[in-house]
């Protein structure tokens, strides 16, 4: 199994999927992290993406957003899970269509979040979808 965690520094989880600059991809075997690699991630910072939507509306479903999300997903198609601090519904849909599950957390430290996830103790804060 491979888990992609969104990050800007390789140590902490970015609070928004679209704004993160990198993925830290952890390879898992027998419930243990056996390796990590950092991969570049396109996103709002590289695409100049703006979210113009009414309060309470979900964003990320227009054609441009979906194209940007496809680019964000393209570098982690070998992963089964993404851990992030939060994300938009459009990004969530793009990940789901690629067969990648999503787990949102308020745990900041990547190593702590991976450990908790592997122990089945990392809460999935779905209210962080917007």
From TrEMBL:
Residues 9-118 form the Dinitrogenase iron-molybdenum cofactor biosynthesis domain. InterPro entries: Di-Nase_FeMo-co_biosynth (IPR003731), DiNase_FeMo-co_biosyn_sf (IPR036105), NifX/NifY_domain (IPR051840). This is Dinitrogenase iron-molybdenum cofactor family protein. The lineage of its organism: Bacteria, Bacillati, Chloroflexota, Dehalococcoidia, Dehalococcoidales.
